[in-house]
Amino acid sequence: MSNNDNRNFVEQIADINTNFAQWYTDVVVKTQLVDYGPVKGTMVIRPYGYAIWENIQRELDKRFKATGHQNAYFPLLIPMSFFTKEAEHVEGFAPEVAVVTHAGGEELAEPLAIRPTSETIIGNMYSKWLQSYRDLPILINQWANVMRWEKTTRPFLRTSEFLWQEGHTCHATEEEAMEETMKMLGVYKEFAENCLAIPVICGRKTEKEKFAGAVATFGMEAMMKDGKSLQAGTSHYLGQNFSKAFEIKFLDKDGVQKYAYTTSWGVSTRLIGALIMAHGDQRGLVIPPVVAPVQVVIIPIAAKKAGVVEACNLLKERLESAGIRVKLDDSDNSPGWKFNEWEMRGVPVRIELGPRDLEGGKMAVFRRDTCAKDFYPLEGAEQTVQALIETIQKDMLESARVRRDERIVDADTLEELLKGVDGGNFVKAGWCGCRECEDEVKAKTAATARVCDSQNTHAKCVVCGKPSKHTVIFARAY
Amino acid sequence: MSNNDNRNFVEQIADINTNFAQWYTDVVVKTQLVDYGPVKGTMVIRPYGYAIWENIQRELDKRFKATGHQNAYFPLLIPMSFFTKEAEHVEGFAPEVAVVTHAGGEELAEPLAIRPTSETIIGNMYSKWLQSYRDLPILINQWANVMRWEKTTRPFLRTSEFLWQEGHTCHATEEEAMEETMKMLGVYKEFAENCLAIPVICGRKTEKEKFAGAVATFGMEAMMKDGKSLQAGTSHYLGQNFSKAFEIKFLDKDGVQKYAYTTSWGVSTRLIGALIMAHGDQRGLVIPPVVAPVQVVIIPIAAKKAGVVEACNLLKERLESAGIRVKLDDSDNSPGWKFNEWEMRGVPVRIELGPRDLEGGKMAVFRRDTCAKDFYPLEGAEQTVQALIETIQKDMLESARVRRDERIVDADTLEELLKGVDGGNFVKAGWCGCRECEDEVKAKTAATARVCDSQNTHAKCVVCGKPSKHTVIFARAY
After folding, report:
1. Which domain holds residue A226?
2. Which of B87, B127, B245, B472 is the least crowded, having the fewest Cβ atoms under 10 Å away?
3. Which residue of A has its CA nearest to B134?
4. A13 lies in a domain?
């Protein structure tokens, strides 16, 4: 029962410490999460990857509905003229848009954009639907594909087409819209931590980094194992920018026509990239149990011995009826091959069951997160495994948090900031608030302002030395 | 407690008997299932409509997984050159395709089609993934949007973009592929009958009506209230047409390279149109409980009287904890207004609860399908309502079946066939099997061959009088 035979799979994965980018590519392709599509910049999400997305969708959708949102579906194609109605928005998105010029055998009178995001077309519909304060708030979410043209492909991280959800809400007042913006950021944070086991830092984005057309963007940032940051979700307070551009108005209680205040918020299949890079190791994926397609893999040892496969099947049924997602690998491959395969694919728990285990009424249980193996009685396996799954989920968050917190450093100078990000850290530093200093940080260190910290704990701007307005988390980012 | 006050809503719906097309449009728009998008041919699926689609998805997805399928996601954009690889396929789909010619600010080297269906791009990926007989069968489904250009808009029935699922499978032998084709047709039929309460007639499509690129298409046809037929789902046996066009090959057990046999099958948001037109009446929608967004609406009577709203809330909680989807309408509108509103929106069960009911420990229960009202004890309401919901589901199927079976007639001549479809019937008639006679039926009666019946019960072709090869169900169709 050695883990060391037949490690051919693992040897094919690039070294995580010296070549993180290649490690990532190796892992996503070899575990069959994803493949490259025929058109540059596109990906195919394969069943194992899509099953993670389904689990993410289920967990998020439950939370959206619990906070009063309903799903709807808006058209993929947006008249190009819609984009020009909000000046910042068109500037931000026009360069990335894919355009339909011909359809049904004819050239179109007006070219149509494939949605890069749906504020404009949803705004157009809301202007029709919204009449009175009684219609407010409008709380709608959409699960959809979107397109932002890319020439390179980084599966889940940067592709022309990706899957996401986009919430779009309308409110009577600034306060309510801001409350919604922060509430959904909170939903994302709770989801990231409790479902993906990824600790996140939330905060306001700088003007430079905000969403094109927003008054304010709030983001959550997650640290990957190489110390870089990944923007894992954003929530935008749009003020009246889009309601004025699209005439989203209502008759208020006081008999006055007013523009609504709107928000939008989204997360995407990037989250799959985030969980891979937040938890993976040299053996491959480590998937948090809540979103793992397979939570427990059962591997028969000496499968030809009488009773082994039957016992494995019985255990599978017991665990499944306790609501656990189980795979029994009864293929012809050797146990060692299977160990490697399922470790690479990141299954949280492996149970090995052979004749000796059965005699002793026990099972060998391997935890993917710590790679520790223990023996437990077969009796009460449902409770044991359920408890272990919950422990793994918590431990993964906790160890990611420890890993991250060790790698947040402070800087008072640009040199310290550069040293910090070179060392794979998030760097906290003061910032005067001006665009020139923000640009200077990027030019000198390749780090960007990820989010403003909740408190301004630094006296001076890391660039110009003037008084700090915000303490900012700087990092290199995906 | 009259049903007849305040019927302003219902009066706005066109007469179902004399103007079915307008009735349909009125119902889908006024019940907020759907709205028209800004681009011709597009629709917005509003929350009430999308909730039906979510219920359809949940029920179908469960069935797909129970039959061994996994979900995945393939790119939206397909290189135009892919279409030309299967001759019939390109001929069928090229005229409907929307084409992206520019993206990221540049003209593309090769124009890209927005998928009208995904056989080609999925075939391209399968050719990479399939190596050995051990990889078979490949059983994958995709939930996605597709685009087939339309200049007119009939919400849910005919729009440029619609939502659907498309299953795509690969098999080692013709037998297995044909078995899959028929199995999924069976899944659709069981779903249509048990979830949508729509009886369907399944059978093989004629050459003229089959999917472009298939060896054989099997469809299920449903009768709408105007006697027209709606194709509610199709399952295609593709033989080796796509495997040869896309080099989907495997090394078989015998060491020989072979082309796989493939299938595809799909249903779409058309199903929402089907359930509206199969069950709706002059008051509006009648939604079968299994897919109804709201299964029970509770309406307080004399809501200001002490204890009424509290009792309604308590009942709501009791029903919800029994797994029933409940809406309590405690808005300021009058009970009569609410009755009409929720009848129009097709909620299967309405419970009215007022001071007198509470005194007597009872509730008034209205069934939307029969429009009958009865009183039941409040005690045991969970069981009563659950049982009623199940009864309604079964009764709706049964009454749709009776309605349909009364409207299937036989014809021996073209005149009889015309008279039959003019009278809003499905017409069974013999057919010699030649394209000319099929075209002649369409030219003279505007009816098309929907499916071939399972048995050939007619002696002669309804057109030419030669021996009948197939008894065909002819109907006018959506």
Report:
1. 20-279
2. B87
3. A331
4. no
Contact A100 B77 (CB under 8 A): no
CA distances from B26 to A326, B43, B369 (A): 49, 15, 19
Cβ–Cβ below 8 Å for B38 and A96: no
Does residue A137 share a domain with residue A198? Answer: yes
Choose among B35, B39, B71: nearest Cβ to A54. Answer: B71
What CATH number is associated with residue B440?
3.30.110.30
| B256 and B298 assigned to the same domain | no
In B368-469, DSSP assigns E strands to 372-377, 408-411, 426-431, 448-452
Q: Looking at the partner chain, which of B95, B104, B129 has a beta carbon nearest the beta carbon of A104?
A: B95
Q: How do residues A300-332 score in pLDDT, each as one tens digit?
A: 999 899 999 999 999 999 999 999 999 999 999
- pTM, two decimals, is 0.96
B162 located within any domain: yes
Q: Which residues of B touch A72 (CB under 8 A)?
A: 44-47, 49-50
Reported confidence tier of residue B2, pLDDT bands at 50, 70, 90? very low
Neighbours of B383 (CB within 10 A): 10
Count of structural domains, chain A:
3
Distance CA A84, CA A94 (A): 9
Instruction: Note the pLDDT tens digit of each residue in B372-387.
Output: 999 999 999 999 999 9
Check residue A90 and give its pLDDT.
87
Whether the per-residue pLDDT at A474 is higher than 60: the answer is yes
Residue B406: exposure state from Cβ atoms within 10 A (0-12, 13-18, ≥19) = exposed
Using an 8 Å CB-CB cutoff, list chain A residues near B50. Answer: 70-73
Inside any domain, residue B342 = yes
CB contact under 8 A, A77 and B149: no
Instruction: Please indicate whether residue A94 or residue A172 has the higher confidence score (pLDDT).
Output: A172
| Contact flag A103-B102 (C-beta cutoff 8 Å) | no
What is the distance between the alpha carbons of residues B147 and A64, in angstroms, rounded to a whole number? 28
pLDDT exceeds cutoff 50 at A7 = no
Answer yes or no: do B373 and B239 share one domain.
Answer: no
The ipTM, to two decimals, is: 0.96
Do A226 and A296 lie in a common domain?
no
Contact B140 A38 (CB under 8 A): no
